[in-house]
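Please go through this protein, sequence plus structure tokens, and consider how the sequence yields the tokens. Keep your notes short.
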Amino acid sequence: MKLLLDTHMAIWWLSGDARMPAAMRGAIEDAEQATISVVSLWEIAIKQGTGRLHMPSGFVDALLEDFSELPVRSEHVQALRGLPPIHRDPFDRMLVAQAMVEGSMLVTRDEEIVRYGVPVLAA
């Protein structure tokens, strides 16, 4: 199973947040491939820069130790263009497009994402 963690799940993963069910943590640990998108790293940086998110230094490096990095490629942008306007968050929309192109299950707590028809491992 290939997994792509959304930003929330990546933060919960490293912070050990109890809202991430143990079964989900186990599925991530057992995944054939678990990735973090550069889109999530970008979102984290933006939120840190505006003061809306406070993470310890080295947080991104720790994520990249646990997960493969998924860059944004032209195929992802093409898939994004075809998505219906269900979700307003541009970061989440790109994660949906990436999951579709990569054949990954998106690990998320966002119930709106299910409406895209992308496979989801929900929190």
User: Anything to note?
Assistant: Residues 90-102 form the longest helix (13 residues).
